[in-house]
Amino acid sequence: MDRRRRARKVLGSLLILALALSTGSVMRPAARAAMQAPQEIHAIKWDFPPKFSNVTVNVVGDAGHNLAPYEFWKDHFPKAGITIKIIEVPFEGVYEKEKTEFVAGSGAFDVVTFYPAYIGDFASNGYLEPLDEYMKKQPDSVWNPHQEDVLPPFREMYNKWAGKTYALTIDGDAHLLIYRKDLFTNAAEKAAFKAKYGKELMPPETWDDWLQIGAFFTRKKGEKLAGQTLERDLYGSAEFAKRGFSFA
């Protein structure tokens, strides 16, 4: 493959990272019941037909477990005539490294592992190759990524740009809500919440609940919380949303 063309079009794989909402874990009764219901699991057997002759595929991503999926198949790649070369980059340097090589047109990478926030930049600038036609042309026995098994938010929001598929999810984490049970069971806080909002203080089930509870527990230094005087400001909710990191 011409390296200049490869520099412009890179097959993308996508890493999905979790956001943790911190304010133990909440699960609605319906969701809990669904998890407890019998589940049917299908095993898929993959084969790598020998189609290439000593082809080297350069894969870049953040060092560590996020590149593990390529290790899962390391014994199978040679059967297809493929050598996988992993280029590990420090976590905080993934975007800069990939973007620099794209702009320079170096053709250094064939497959890139990146975070959802980057797909707009990478796809709209023509750095990535759309995967839709590849998925249509290849028979299931050769390649079927089973996109119907991928949760819609990952499949539609994080793998696509402008209606085209540019990436495949390799790590889709769960969103968690952590709350302080000691505050939710405190008699004084429960009474104050009911007096203010006319309902019981319970873990949130909707975003409106979450906003309301966050506002309720936001206090200034010197105010009371569960009978104790606060020595510093308290925020009713907190999210991991450092600017420039993944979704932020």
TrEMBL record:
Any Pfam family: SBP_bac_1
Keyword list, A-Z: Signal, Transport
InterPro entries per record: Bact_solute-bd_prot1 (IPR050490), SBP (IPR006059)
Extent of the signal sequence: 1-33
Record has Metal-binding as a keyword: no
PANTHER family assigned: ABC TRANSPORTER PERIPLASMIC-BINDING PROTEIN YCJN-RELATED, ARABINOSE-BINDING PROTEIN-RELATED
Family: Belongs to the bacterial solute-binding protein 1 family.
Protein name: Extracellular solute-binding protein
